[in-house]
């Protein structure tokens, strides 16, 4: 700051200790007319800084700064307009009157005088409580409504004497201060009867003795303990069903810290509760409660209380009205994980009913539409369970069940069923516990892969696979993996890295717990004539892997397999032109028996012999894997040296899988 002193040609300049200040010394003529620039302090006759421009050869001014005064802290900028002496890192003893003298070649010497005042900033303010103890941290309190805030701000040092004032939320509320002892200044603030609205108010002690720098300040945030303002039961039901599990919610606002909510039935405290903090001002408590007929007319009480202040509580009462239609709940099978159901899984729901009198009829709904039970559609009701076999995306949605007794009908809440799509690109690998499997990861890369990486994901966690568990050479990596527990089954991904970068789409392997498929059962021949036969069986457990059903015709004379047919959908086969095969077997003096079994990645099931079905000299021509009426034909076969050649025509249905 520069200002003109009442004394002629003396300018007042303020600088802050430790910072920089400039003292101007204007040069109004060309530099070629200047001999020297000299700086003096107070009444000293010896300069403390000089600039000599008399060297006509180099024409570069020669600067000199007295080391015992400024040394390298000062620099005169002769090219600046106006020219000025820059003093860095001001010291307290730099204060004084400075004189700049400019000697010219042809004109009279010019002189400028500056009265430099060095301002010493005060120390950082400290705050004391009413008992004179230092406040630590940034929190003031906690206080309660109606309390007084009594705090003192203390500031030490500073030249000139600093101001000390209190601000609340940036507004000055007290600027009256007094000198304590020596260079200590104090300002004591009394802020009476604080209110709820003062919560989080910012109390700031501020000190300053110059406008050259921002004030120093210390701030505290007011913390308060507040009593609850409201309490209510959220949407209490008009009636309660006996023995039905209810979740009743009570909400309280206004308490700080959040209220503790307790429930009472009469004078007995209810323990089955779950508390939840919605935000910093609202607390809810959920009472899980199954009323009985004896609870009708009793009072349920919800109480909210500040946990840190005794006696600060609110409560509300609710008189219960209990009636007795069925209590119905729907639940996904306990062995199922709601977020891990995918296409092809078997799913079942359980409908839990508590009713007086007992329920008479139970119904199931899918997306509010009454379900019709259909074995072919794999929708089966068994007792109070609904079984969905081999679910698809169409099986997803909201399920509910209802029960009816003499008091009325009750429909359960809806249970959402989410069906995940299978990873169509994943390679399915079945393994038993403790079975070591080798999983090859083949990639095509140019340039070749430099490294491979494997990762395991079982939905609960994602883990990198240690490098010692797989071997890599060229563009193939082989992982040796032995699952031990159910958590060891999941998704394995493999990717390679070459000079271009990492593989964009990793190879995916789905490792599932698998075993041999179970044998088929209940085999029958629903339709049979001399020309054709239908063979129908019930599939067994697939072992956790996709299974294919196989029908074989086996020579009874040699035990060798003569013909086999497969169906990937179901154990159903149609054989026609049996009379020609029967004639052939007669000529060979042979007969064929029929067995059916299932195959998956782990192997084949125990074959099942079709009873009462023996083809005397019959060779089937085609197995139809769908229930539609496609004919079965037989390949032409030349029969021995006997005079008869029996020609069989074989036509394979477009949906037959061999």
Automatic annotation (TrEMBL):
<dbReference type="InterPro" id="IPR013106">
    <property type="entry name" value="Ig_V-set"/>
</dbReference>
<dbReference type="InterPro" id="IPR003598">
    <property type="entry name" value="Ig_sub2"/>
</dbReference>
<protein>
    <submittedName>
        <fullName>AGAP009596-PA</fullName>
    </submittedName>
</protein>
<dbReference type="InterPro" id="IPR013783">
    <property type="entry name" value="Ig-like_fold"/>
</dbReference>
<feature type="domain" description="Ig-like">
    <location>
        <begin position="122"/>
        <end position="219"/>
    </location>
</feature>
<feature type="domain" description="Ig-like">
    <location>
        <begin position="434"/>
        <end position="510"/>
    </location>
</feature>
<dbReference type="Pfam" id="PF13927">
    <property type="entry name" value="Ig_3"/>
</dbReference>
<dbReference type="GO" id="GO:0016020">
    <property type="term" value="C:membrane"/>
</dbReference>
<keyword id="KW-1133">Transmembrane helix</keyword>
<feature type="domain" description="Ig-like">
    <location>
        <begin position="228"/>
        <end position="306"/>
    </location>
</feature>
<feature type="domain" description="Ig-like">
    <location>
        <begin position="6"/>
        <end position="117"/>
    </location>
</feature>
<dbReference type="InterPro" id="IPR013162">
    <property type="entry name" value="CD80_C2-set"/>
</dbReference>
<keyword id="KW-1015">Disulfide bond</keyword>
<dbReference type="Pfam" id="PF07686">
    <property type="entry name" value="V-set"/>
</dbReference>
<dbReference type="InterPro" id="IPR036179">
    <property type="entry name" value="Ig-like_dom_sf"/>
</dbReference>
<dbReference type="Pfam" id="PF08205">
    <property type="entry name" value="C2-set_2"/>
</dbReference>
<dbReference type="InterPro" id="IPR003599">
    <property type="entry name" value="Ig_sub"/>
</dbReference>
<dbReference type="InterPro" id="IPR007110">
    <property type="entry name" value="Ig-like_dom"/>
</dbReference>
<feature type="domain" description="Ig-like">
    <location>
        <begin position="334"/>
        <end position="412"/>
    </location>
</feature>
<keyword id="KW-0812">Transmembrane</keyword>
<keyword id="KW-0472">Membrane</keyword>
<feature type="transmembrane region" description="Helical">
    <location>
        <begin position="634"/>
        <end position="652"/>
    </location>
</feature>
